[in-house]
Specification:
Elements lengths: L13 E2 L1 E6 L5 E6 L2 E6 L2 E8 L3 H9 L1 E6 L5 H9 L7 H4 L4 E3 L6 E3 L4 E13 L2 E13 L4 E2 L2 E2 L1 H4 L3 E3 L4 E3 L11 H4 L5
Length: 191
């Protein structure tokens, strides 16, 4: 028996992404966001939803670009901190001891210490109630060599941080279950 929980944001898990932008003076800024995901495969694109009140919101509107960095579970405290304080008041890169890396392709900074970064050019915005959905075309992906398996990011090596909105808690990933587009061919029943 399932119980109705009403309309809510309880889809789980959500990625913990750190959004990188420059402000109008060219100062690099970061913000942690969990309302995000891949939204298109061709062209490759991501979507992130932000409140207009955030400093990052204005930076994306002005610069038409952002980066998405994926912190590992070892960087949970840093990622949480970046979502608590505002770039209007704090140099988040400095306070978190992170290194901004200027993208050669978009007008936004990556984070040297995070293992995976997506460089995005803003292609569309959509206001949805309290949040605005920013869609960015991924123009490049940068990955630390240490997380690559056959030239692609290995999820276990990346060890991404995940967010559970229902619990207001962070998690890591679990064990590998099998190969996508293959395990369902063996049997459609649960193991």
């Amino acid at each position: 028996m399932k119980r109705s929980l009403g309309p809510s944001v309880l889809a789980a898990p959500s990625p913990v992404w750190v959004i990188g932008t420059y402000d109008s003076a060219g100062v690099p800024n970061l913000m942690t966001a969990a309302w995000a995901g891949i939204c298109c495969s061709k062209p490759p694109a991501v979507a992130v939803s932000l409140r207009e009140a955030t400093y990052t919101y204005g930076n994306i509107v002005e610069r038409k670009a952002f980066t998405v960095s994926v912190p590992s579970t070892r960087q949970a405290r840093i990622a949480d901190y970046l979502g608590i304080v505002s770039g209007r008041d704090v140099d988040k890169f400095g306070e978190a001891h992170l290194t901004p890396v200027k993208s050669e392709l978009v007008d936004a900074p990556c984070v040297a210490e995070f293992p995976l970064s997506l460089e995005c050019r803003l292609v569309q915005t959509l206001k949805i109630g309290l949040h605005t959905l920013f869609v960015g075309e991924i123009v490049d992906v940068k990955a630390d060599e240490s997380i690559l398996v056959d030239g692609r990011p290995g999820l276990d090596r990346l060890d991404p941080l995940l967010f559970s909105a229902g619990e207001q808690a962070y998690y890591g990933i679990g064990a590998r279950m099998g190969s996508a587009f293959r395990i369902g061919r063996e049997s459609p029943r649960d193991n």
